[in-house]
Every structure is written in C-alpha cells, then in structure tokens.
Specification:
By secondary structure, the chain is of the alpha+beta class. Helices cover 21% and strands 20% of the residues. The protein starts with 7 loop residues before the first helix and ends in a 7-residue tail after the last strand.
Length: 197
C-alpha cells in the first residue's frame, strides 16, 4: 500500500475558506435578528421619544404634535402671557403643581424648563377631551377674569396658560407636562427627561 501525501497548504486554505463562509453566514443571519430587536414604527409612535423642530413657532403660537397617541402642545409664550400667570393664582386649584406627579421642572409658575416654552399634553384631566386654546383676554364667555388659557368645551374645565386647573371645574388636576428636554435652542425631544443625554 502506498501512502498519499497530505497537502497541508490546501487543507489550511479549505479550513480558512470554510470558517470565512460560516462567519459570513452567521453575520448574515444576525443582522435581521438584531434589527428585529429595535422598536417598530408603531411602537415608536406609541411611546418612543419624538424630536420636534420649534424654530418656526412664533411668539403666541401653538404647535401640536402627537406622542403616545395624544396631542402634545408646544406653546411659545409672549412676555404678556407670562405676566398673566400670577394674576390667576388665587383662582387655581393647584397653582404649584403639588397634587399630581410631574417632572421637577413642572413645579414652578411657568411649569416649564424655559418659561417662554410650554410643553403639555393637550388632554383634559377630567375625561380626556382636548381643550381649545384661548389666548385671548378678556373673554367673558369663558370667565369674567380670563387672562388666556385653555377651555374644555366638553364639560367646561378651564386651565391657565401654564395648564394649571381652575377651582370649581370638573377637571381634578393640572394638564400633564410630559418628560422633555431641549436638544438645542430650536429642537425639543418629547419623551426623554432633561437629565437624559
């Protein structure tokens, strides 16, 4: 019987080729698997943070965006709007936002990180209707001492321009301030707290 010589170079080449093809197969299978772990577009719409360009919002205007299936209002308040806030404190149920769990930056008169910019969920805390934006004042059809704010047409709840609820209306709590942060002077991310990076 004759011995056949083993070609070590060929064996090494075949081993390396098999490993390379196997590795490419593993990577090819891993990419779709890892992509399936990221949230779907529907999941993002239901709760993932959203980034909003606020560069075109003029003083006194409101921008409405959707986050978690609810309207979120971004309002650029004027100096007159901000000056009206302390004028209604005595008529409010919770002027310091102590009754509901809110971010720390919502526990001030403006209920905001930057007083000029108000960010709140546009759903009445009574039954979830969307209040109308009524920045006009006076507005005797809403209240004799109306300084501007939000009026819920469903059951008559009233909120000031910081989303604080008036006394004697069906809504039990101030409008919700969602977690948010300023990315820069013209961009807000809603759904991430200001401590997030």
């Amino acid at each position: 019987m004759s011995k056949v010589g083993v070609d070590a170079g060929r064996r090494r080449f075949l081993t390396l080729t098999t490993v390379a093809v196997g590795g490419a197969g593993v990577v090819g299978a891993a990419i779709p698997f890892l992509a399936s772990l990221s949230p779907s577009e529907r999941a993002k719409a239901l709760g993932a943070p959203i980034t909003v360009d606020i560069s075109k919002v003029e003083p006194g205007q409101r921008l409405v965006v959707a986050w978690r299936g609810k309207p979120v209002w971004i309002i650029r308040r004027t100096p007159d709007m901000l000056a009206s806030l302390p004028k209604v404190d005595a008529a409010l149920r919770d002027p310091n936002s102590d009754e509901a769990q809110q971010p720390a930056y919502a526990k001030n008169e403006a209920r905001a990180i930057k007083p000029e910019w108000s960010v709140m969920v546009g759903s009445c805390t009574h039954l979830g209707c969307s209040p109308t934006f009524r920045p006009d004042h006076p507005a005797p059809d809403v209240d004799a001492n109306w300084q501007g704010g939000f009026y819920c047409p469903c059951h008559g709840s009233k909120f000031d321009l910081a989303g604080r609820v008036y006394q004697g209306v069906p809504a039990p709590l101030n409008l919700v301030v969602p977690p948010y942060r300023f990315v820069n002077d013209t961009t807000i991310t809603i759904g991430e707290d200001q401590g997030a990076a």
